[in-house]
Design brief:
binds D-malate; four-stranded mixed β-sheet; disordered N terminus; binds zinc ion; globular; 4 domains; Uridine Diphospho-n-acetylenolpyruvylglucosamine Reductase, domain 2; Uridine Diphospho-n-acetylenolpyruvylglucosamine Reductase, domain 3; 34% helix; Alpha-Beta Plaits
């Protein structure tokens, strides 16, 4: 139960506090310090949370009323889902009100003929996946945080994850959205339609908008068939060029569901933290995790032949193939547990991408920069290299302050992002821009584009109520 302290009036007009209490009651308008800390932050650790309150609406009508009050009193709102973001997009660091969707998590019955599901924005990703699975269907956007992330947050950040190579990003699965804009208007976008060529599609503006245009309150998602008999191989690999050769070979020979990679230090951290057996006796600089559909025994034979050919070419040193579902899940843990395992070292996260064909150039530029700037720090590499996305995590050493560590890494990121820019790549492939990548946005988007973004924000949110200071400064 929340304590009933008065609202911090230095931050929020008293009359607004009174109206919020009238609308939500003390139970759903939280101002105690634990709630402010808890709801005011996402998974990033470089900015301190400082919201002035936490709002827990139960309905779209309440959200519209909140936006109306925010407009009237000049308050700011930070839309908030599972707060698993990694770029500070859901941080409330400047006296904003956190607008949490956690009470709005209803999932409607699966529409079997239409292969779709409609849910409130606070629905947990894994629960949507479970509801689809119970009807023999699948919502295929998946990642390690699916047990706590909410669909509204996934959509606002256009979440990617581990099977983008096969299924694409969140954007590819959203057929309808309900959003409340900065004028408190409710927009119903695309209505779950598969075909709808009637002018500009605002749904796609809200996907990946990081809460700067308004708040997503409901979504309709397309579903698909689950893959047949997925199998996982982990391959020990000596070099980045070899990794890319293996990717090319897998793409021509297998029905690939995922092609992930991680470095030896990543494996070392995960196996030590969770007391897991490493997959091989020997250690290798890199590992590829390949998931493929094994529709028939021929698919397995093909996979084994592929591994042999890769070994003969000197690209793969050793390999292990899952023989059952429990082994498949254990092998996935080697990759999926990395992010959570290294969180204790306050990692500085780079999330960069190029086209898949340019990934070898990206990897060699990054390799050179790491060798030049980070010889004294632990660097953990992993990522979705099958879709051109590399995660480069620098671990903070003990005894160094978070601020000094961040400054040092930012200076290196400027070089890194120049390399990314030269390849026409992205400085944020899937984590978003939020607060942490804002100063680097110009490496991926030019002034004309950023200025158009400002104009679009002004159309949907003329008073700048929603998520101020995220993505770009107004
Ligand atoms: C991942 O690929 O594991 C996620 O994007 C999270 C992370 O990069 O730490
Ligand atoms: Zn990722």
């Amino acid at each position: 139960m929340a304590d009933k302290q008065p609202v911090n009036s230095s931050r929020l007009p008293e009359a607004m506090g009174a109206s919020l209490i009238e609308l939500l009651g003390h139970e759903r308008f939280l101002t105690d310090s634990h709630s402010l800390q808890h709801y005011g932050r996402d998974w990033t650790r470089f900015v301190a949370p400082a919201p002035s309150g936490v709002l827990l609406p139960n309905s779209i009508g309440e959200i519209q009323a909140i936006v109306h009050l925010a407009r009237k009193y000049g308050a700011k709102l930070v839309p908030s889902g599972g707060r698993t973001g990694l770029s500070g997009g859901a941080m409330a660091a400047g006296g904003e009100l956190v607008l949490s969707l956690e009470r709005m998590r209803k999932i409607s019955p699966i529409n079997k003929a239409g292969r779709s599901v409609t849910c409130e924005a606070g629905a947990i990703t894994a629960q949507i996946q479970q509801a689809a699975a119970e009807e023999g269907l699948m919502y295929p956007v998946d990642f390690a945080s699916s047990g706590s992330s909410q669909i509204g947050g996934n959509i606002a950040t256009n979440a990617g994850g581990i099977q983008v190579i096969r299924y694409g990003m969140t954007r590819d699965w959203v057929t309808g959205l309900k959003v409340v804009t900065g004028t408190s208007e409710l927009l119903e976008l695309n209505h779950g339609l598969i075909k709808n060529n009637t002018g500009l599609d605002f749904r796609h503006l809200f996907i990946g908008s990081e809460g700067i245009l308004g708040v997503i309150v409901e979504a309709t998602l397309a579903l698909t068939d689950p893959p047949t008999n997925p199998r996982v191989m982990v391959l020990g690999i000596q070099s980045m060029p070899a990794l890319m050769e293996v990717l090319a070979k897998c793409q021509t020979r297998l029905s690939v569901l995922a092609f992930e990679f991680f470095s030896d230090l990543a494996l070392e951290k995960v196996t030590a933290a969770h007391s897991i057996q490493p997959p091989f006796q020997e250690r290798f600089p890199y590992y590829a995790l390949v998931e493929f559909e094994s529709i028939s025994t021929a698919a397995e034979t093909q996979a084994l032949e592929l591994v042999e050919a890769c070994m003969a070419a000197g690209w793969v040193e050793d390999a292990v193939l899952s023989q059952n579902e429990s082994q498949r899940r254990s092998l996935w843990r080697l990759r999926e547990d990395i992010s959570e395992t290294i969180a204790q070292w306050t990692p500085y996260k780079n999330d960069i991408s190029t086209t898949v064909q340019q990934a070898p150039e990206l990897l060699s530029s990054v390799d050179a920069l790491v060798a030049q700037h980070y010889t004294d720090l632990d660097v953990v590499w992993y990522g979705h290299i099958g879709d051109g996305n590399l995660h480069l995590n620098i671990l903070k050493p003990d005894g160094v302050s978070v601020g000094a560590f961040e400054e040092r890494c930012k200076a290196v990121s400027a070089h890194l992002f120049t390399a990314v820019q030269n390849l026409g790549g992205s400085i944020s492939a899937e984590h978003g821009v939020g607060l942490l990548k804002k100063e680097f946005l110009h490496f991926s988007r030019d002034e004309a584009e950023i200025s158009l973004m400002r104009g679009i924000k002004a159309q949907f949110d003329p008073d700048g109520i929603f998520n101020p200071g995220k993505v770009f400064d107004a």
